[in-house]
Specification:
The complex is a heterodimer of chains A (about 375) and B (about 300). With about 375 residues, chain A is α/β, with parallel strands linked by helices. Chain A has 14 helices and eight strands. Chain A has a domain of about 260 residues: Rossmann fold. An eight-stranded mixed beta sheet of chain A has the order 3-4-2-5-1-6-7-8, sandwiched between helices. Helices cover about 55% and strands about 10% of the residues of chain A. Chain B has 13 helices and eight strands. In chain B, strands 3-4-2-5-1-6-7-8 form an eight-stranded mixed beta sheet, sandwiched between helices. The longest helix of chain B is centred in the C-terminal third of the chain and has 26 residues. The radius of gyration of chain B is 21 Å and the shape is elongated. Classes of the chains: A alpha/beta (about 375), B alpha/beta (about 300).
Chain lengths: ~375, ~300
């Protein structure tokens, strides 16, 4: 809404980085929603913000004014903030194709890659390709200088860590030595595939591989690597640029996690890994930590009798449920406190309640961002 | 329930719906019936290691203390290693293979190779290839929906790309196993919420269209309602404070659960209802989920 938001020192400091916020976490924890809520807040504070989402829920996409079949950057409708909020869906296949077209040496070279059957499968299924394309899209958005802040919602992975490993994986895949090897192997006049030019060890390996998979498979691979060579230098430069951006002083990481013992444990690993890789972890958001109506912490010894007078037969049953429900959340609160203690160094901790309804519109995102703005639990 | 006689059960679903817990519950329920069960998780990092606070989870199965079944972690690389070693038979050659940078790249880039290797491992007991896998049932805590579907599609893709040689031959065998309802079952886990339900029904349709199999569904974390709708309404209208809020909350939950459960049933699927377990203790969680699959009639509430 148009009115000035109440200041929230902890949250606003994170958002004031004014370049990049990466929302990391494993699948199904509500990353996209939190990324969008952060975007709302930053726009309220006056920034021109782009939220890059991967695979948003239909209602959330609608709330952001996005059409899932169109990956262009759009102004979110229905807003009146001091700044301005934009959003886009990342289309992995399209981003990859555009990357090839833009960076291949010629149209023929681009067509050769785009037409390769291996490429067609790889651009969507290769492990790390979604991560690669979302980082490429992030880099493009930052370089365009159209935004003060770009918030990246990362692709869903089993483990939050997978995202961090992806760029290196892609990079090492297309190392010069690897592609060169394949091109040597395929060079006309070199005696064909298994030529005398190759070292004996490599020859043995290739022969073994041929036994396992068949020659046809190897030929496809060689063709692929030969074609990819024309964009290889760019691939390398881009991954260096991405690493530089991510580890630079104006990029901040927010880890989003759901609330159970194993997920919190995973968040701990992620936190350590981020630090080790030199990335700035600013905040941890624990999503759906407690039902919105249940008093936080919920360890108060509320007398059941004080809950209200009622004469229905269901009263005892519901009260019994309430007691169990409360005990469960009290145990979870203990879990959280333990986690908070061990994770204290540096990162701010936010907990979000579980709402009864999905996010339906921009107002729901505003409510969520207001909740975040109520402040961190550790100062 | 199909998998009572099947040898492989794939458990998949959208990220965050509780696949791993459901897989563990099914493994426990089947082990309790006297079957030799292996719970296999896929990928490079283990979920169960933290869940059960184990020292380590490895490619080679090891028993899970107190659960009555074994656990293994299978990645594309670990399965491919085993496969290559099995076929090349010479240890030094296999080392050469995996210490070669080019080969590592190739393994990563070759589409479907990791997936085929993993499926090859899962089906190796039935196909009687490779090291023996002495289990009556392998419960696979598989990848999330999209990646799982890519894995199920890999053998056909490989068959079409490579008609000859051992890889083509294996792909055909694997394909036969995964589309044989007498051998392989599919369980898609969902929450009774919009996004997971949509994704679940799409996956079920894709499995039917592409493999000809009928996936069963598990609706996870169903909040057990302590009172009827009418009773809850009355409480909401009459009570105050927490009791009033709780009744209102439960009414909302009841409406949502009924709506999405209806969508699953309308699709003609067999739906297993798994209650929300109000505990964070692994043993308690798995036991409760197992009881939802043990067919003993207990609803686990």
């Amino acid at each position: 809404m148009g009115s000035e938001p109440r200041p929230s020192p902890e949250l606003d400091e994170i958002l004031s980085s004014r370049k990049v916020i990466v929302c990391a976490g494993s699948g199904g924890v509500g990353k996209t929603t939190v990324a969008a809520a952060l975007g709302v807040r930053a726009a309220q504070l006056g920034a021109r913000v782009l939220v890059l989402t991967v695979d948003p829920a239909k209602r959330l996409a609608t709330a952001l004014g996005l059409d899932l079949s169109d990956d262009s950057e759009k102004r979110v409708p229905g807003q009146s903030y001091r700044g301005e909020l934009f959003a886009a869906v990342i289309d992995s296949r399209k981003t990859f194709d555009q990357f090839i077209v833009r960076h291949a040496k010629s149209k023929a070279a681009a067509d050769r890659i785009l037409g390769n059957r291996l490429y067609q499968q790889l651009s969507t299924t290769l492990s790390g390709s979604q991560e690669f394309t979302s980082l490429e899209r992030l880099l493009e958005a930052v370089e365009s200088e159209r935004y003060d802040l770009v918030i990246l919602d990362t692709p869903p992975t089993k483990h939050a860590m997978d995202f961090l490993m992806a760029p290196q994986r892609i990079h090492s895949l297309f190392q010069d030595s690897v592609t060169k090897w394949f091109i040597e192997a395929a060079r006309p006049g070199s005696g064909g595939l298994i030529s005398g030019l190759l070292s004996r060890g490599t020859r043995t390996v290739l022969k073994s591989l041929e036994t396992l998979t068949g020659g046809q498979f190897i030929e496809e691979l060689i063709d692929f690597f030969a074609a990819v060579r024309s964009v290889q230098a760019t691939l390398r430069d881009r991954s260096v640029a991405v690493q530089k951006l991510l580890s630079g002083p104006r990029t901040k990481f927010v880890v989003i996690t759901s609330f159970d013992a194993a997920k919190l444990e995973e968040a701990k690993y992620l936190q350590a890994a981020l630090r080790k890789m030199g990335f700035a972890l600013e905040a941890i958001v624990i999503n759906r930590a407690f039902p919105v109506w249940l008093p936080e912490g919920s360890d108060a010894d509320e007398d059941a009798a004080a809950l209200g007078v009622s004469s229905g037969p269901a009263r005892e049953k519901v009260l019994d449920f309430y007691e169990r429900f409360k005990r469960f959340h009290a145990v979870r609160y203990d879990l959280y406190e333990e986690f908070a203690k061990s994770a204290r160094a540096g990162a701010r901790m936010f907990r979000l309640p579980e709402y009864d309804q999905d996010v339906h519109g921009l107002r729901d995102l505003e409510r969520l961002s207001a909740r975040l703005a109520e402040g961190a639990e550790n100062k | 329930m199909g998998w009572k006689s099947q040898k492989i059960l794939f458990v998949t679903g959208k990220g965050g719906v509780g696949k791993s817990l459901i897989a563990a519950g099914v493994a426990r329920a089947e082990a309790a019936r006297g079957r030799r069960v292996l719970l296999a998780e896929l990928g490079e990092n283990s979920y169960y290691k933290d869940f059960w606070k184990l020292d380590g989870v490895d490619h080679v199965p090891r028993p899970v203390p107190g659960e009555g079944f074994d656990l293994a972690l299978w990645s594309g690389e670990s399965c491919l290693r085993e496969y290559v070693l099995h076929y090349l038979r010479v240890e030094s050659l296999y080392r050469l293979f995996f210490e070669n940078k080019v080969m590592r790249s190739l393994v990563n880039v070759a589409p479907g190779l990791s997936e085929i290797a993993i499926l090859g491992k899962i089906t190796s007991g039935i196909r009687k290839v490779g090291p023996p896998l002495a289990y009556d049932l392998v419960v696979v805590d598989a990848f999330a929906t999209g990646h799982a579907l890519a894995m199920f599609r890999a053998p056909r893709g490989m068959m079409e790309a490579i008609r000859f040689g051992p890889m083509g031959h294996h792909s055909r065998d694997i394909q036969k196993v995964i589309q044989d309802p007498g051998l392989t079952g599919y369980l898609v886990v969902t929450l009774l919420e919009e996004l997971p339900v949509v994704e679940t029904l799409e996956l079920r349709d894709a499995l039917k269209a592409e493999l000809g199999v009928d996936a069963e569904l598990a609706a996870n974390k169903i909040v057990p309602l302590p009172a009827s709708r009418a009773e809850l309404r009355e409480l909401r209208d009459q009570a105050r404070g927490g009791l009033k809020e709780l009744s209102g909350f439960l009414l909302g939950v009841e409406e949502r659960q009924a709506r999405f459960l209806g969508q699953l049933l309308d699709a003609g699927a067999e739906v297993h209802r798994v209650p929300q377990v109000y505990s964070e203790k692994p043993d308690e969680l798995v036991k409760r989920v197992a009881s939802a699959f043990s067919g003993s009639g207990a609803d686990g509430l």
